[in-house]
Amino acid sequence: MKITVLGGSGAWPTAGEACSGFLVEHDGFRLLLDLGYAALPRLLETTTAERVDAVVISHGHPDHCADLNPLLRARALGGHRPPPLPIHALPGSLAAVLSLDRPGMLDEAYRLCEFEAGDRLDLGPFTVDTALLPHWVPNAAVRVRAGDTSVTYTGDGGPSPDLVALARGTDLLIAEATYPDHLPPDDAGYLTSALQAGQQAAQAGAGRLLLTHLWPGTAPEAAVAAAGRSYRDEIAVAAGGLTVEV
After folding, report:
1. β-pair type (149-153, 139-146)
2. What pLDDT was estimated at residue 80?
3. What stretches of the chain show up as alpha helix (H) in DSSP?
4. Would the pTM count as exceeding 0.90?
5. pLDDT at 192 over 90
6. What mean pLDDT is predicted for residues 16-25?
7. Could you give the count of Cα atoms lying within 13 Å of 26 in the half-sphere of its Cβ?
8. Whether residue 54 has pLDDT greater than 90
9. 81 pLDDT band (50/70/90 cuts)?
10. Per-residue pLDDT at 135
């Protein structure tokens, strides 16, 4: 599997960095995990809009799904008329972003496939397992597997034993790490620090850890240092253009 980071900024895009988006490729199949603010231009540096085969969205906050709208516009209006794009998401989570255009304009560009957290999805060469993580809105973590190789992605969410179970033995854990080590009281339980991400990666026995969704202005080295207090294997920070082979 090849994973290309489209963006790793939390909350809003910063100069030169998009919000959450990851392209997972295997056997010619292209799967998007989230597509937040400004992630589409990064995607178009790698492939074309019509070559995306499926999308999985963790939750409905716009820093994880806002660029679905321009992606669907590119497919609907670009003149190539690809088949409807399967978009997999929790029930009702994409109502806002899918209603941005006039009624019917994008209907033929996508097929909405809603799932419940805990469901298993079969997407091309991938098997995708899902689990619900605590967040202000329902958020599905996913484990994407091809053969004996897997990547687990948290979306957003507070620490949970369900994530540790989902990520057990995964080759790569892509974990939200909004703050290095301390969470504001209002965020505790709904977001994860890099320190907590490292602890969960160690508990799960993940092969590698990729920290994402850092709050704008956070020093990447501070996040890596915090995660490294408990996780002893390879740690990196998601930045647009980074590619990882697993």
Report:
1. antiparallel
2. 85
3. 39-44, 62-65, 68-77, 95-98, 161-166, 194-204, 220-227
4. yes
5. yes
6. 98
7. 21
8. yes
9. confident
10. 98
CB 191 within 8 A of CB 176: yes
- The encoded tokens of residue 45 equal 């540096």
User: Is the distance from CB of 188 to CB of 38 less than 8 angstroms?
Assistant: no
pLDDT at 236: 98
Judge whether 130 and 120 are in contact, CB under 8 Å.
yes
Residue type, 2: K
Residue type, 88: H
Measured between alpha carbons, how far is 96 from 30 in angstroms, rounded to an integer? Answer: 25
Query: Which strands make up the sheet holding 54-56, listed edge to edge?
Result: 110-114, 85-89, 54-56, 29-35, 21-26, 2-7, 243-245
- For 6-32, b/e burial (b = at least 16 CB within 10 A) is bbbbbbebeeebbbbbbbbbbeeebbb
Q: How far is C-alpha 47 from the geometric centre of its chain's CA atoms?
A: 18
Q: Is the CA virtual torsion 198, 117, 187, 221 positive or negative?
A: positive
Question: CA geometry: angle at 15 spanning 14 and 20, to 5°?
Answer: 40
* Helix/strand/coil for 195: helix
